Structure formats: structure tokens, C-alpha cells
Amino acid sequence: MQDFLLRDGLFDAVLFDLDNTLVDFISAKQKACVAVIDELGCGDPDILFSYFLRKRHGFEDYANIFDYLSDMEITGSATYLKACTIYEDVKLSNIQPYVGIEEALDAFQSKGMRLGVVTDADSVQAEKRLKQANLREYFDVVISPDISGRRKPDPDSFLMALDSLRSNPLHAIHVGDSIRRDIEPAKRLGMCTIHAAYGDWHPDETKASSIRTLRIERPEELIRLLLGSR
Predict the structure, then answer these.
(1) Cis peptide before 153, with omega less than 30 degrees from 0?
(2) Positive/negative CA dihedral, 210, 53, 29, 140
(3) What is each CA distance from 114 to 87, 154, 163, in whole angstroms?
(4) For the whole model, what pTM was predicted?
(5) For the segment 107-117, what is each residue's pLDDT rounded down to a tens digit?
């Protein structure tokens, strides 16, 4: 089988979302919640994790931990700060790339593709996660909201990444787990899109969307989809 998406020089760049596309962020957060509960000596890690899923605060806001402790009637700034520190340390230490991601990035680099990350994590956190996962060296650019000034689904981060890679949207591919924040804005720019369904934690948004996109169920499918049989 001939190369599929990357044949004939049609595409020259691939952008990736970070959390739940390159790395298993949800699993790391769940383990961090377990560690916090172990330190407290009471509570339920699944319930703590559910606080991060609410839309009251940001997905990574420590206010979620504060709310949980308040609801558990656990008080004291020292306890709160300790819980936040444990959460952050354990979460970062458990950041790992999905199986198949490194092989895909190696394959794309060998084809001369320019690679970038477009993420809603701030730049400090994004750099830490990429380094922890041993993926930083693959990427020519990492764009986050504190660099572009806007969060996804606003197109600014995508456009800044493409400009940095000197790529036209029509010649670039974006891979992401969120239909609303990744696929829809990239598609509007004219990019080829690939839905990383294996990391999608928003099934209702995905079902509600009528947008057409390529889809993969496992990271290792990226190589076959973009390069064909090798």
C-alpha cells in the first residue's frame, strides 16, 4: 500500500493536542487524586476527581481541591497546601505517552514533517509534561494560551503554531481528542483533522457534532493512517 496522507508532499506539518492525545492525562490525574486521599486518610478519590469534571472551576484549578476539602469539613491552610503539592507532584510523575505515540512521532520526523503542540495547558505545565513523557525533543514549537493570548477553540494558537512552522493550514494536519476544542477549529481553518477518540472524555459533545473528520481508536493507528503500510 502506498503512503496515504503524507504522500506526494501534500502535507508538511502535524499539530497535536497534548493532554489525552499525546499523554494519558486523565490516568495521571486519577492517581494524583488517590494520593491526596491517602494523605488525608479519609474520603473517596473518585469523588475528588469528579470535582475537576465540574465546570465551576477550570479542569486544573486547585479550587476544586479546596471545594472538596470544604465539603468534607477538612480545614486548615497547611492541609490544603499539602494536598495541592501532593496532587501536582503525583500527577506530573505519572504523565506517560500513550503506547504508539513515540513510534508515530519517530515515523513522521523521518518523513521530514514539522511537528507542533497546541495545548490549553500553560507553557510551564506543557513543558514539564512533555519532558516527563520524553516527547519534548520531537516538537519544533509548543503553543499555549499564555503565548497566543487565547484558549481553544479560538484559532489563534493554531495559527501561531502554523506560522512558526511556516505551514499553510491546507497543508497541515491536526490531531486532538476534543471535537469542540480541537477538531472543529482546525477544520474551520482548512486543516486535515484526526480525532483521537481514545482520549475523548466528552462523548456528549462528540455525539452532538456533525463535523466530518478522520478518527483513530488507538495511537498506533496514526502510522497506518498517515503513512500506510511500512
Answers:
(1) yes
(2) positive
(3) 34, 22, 12
(4) 0.92
(5) 999 989 999 99
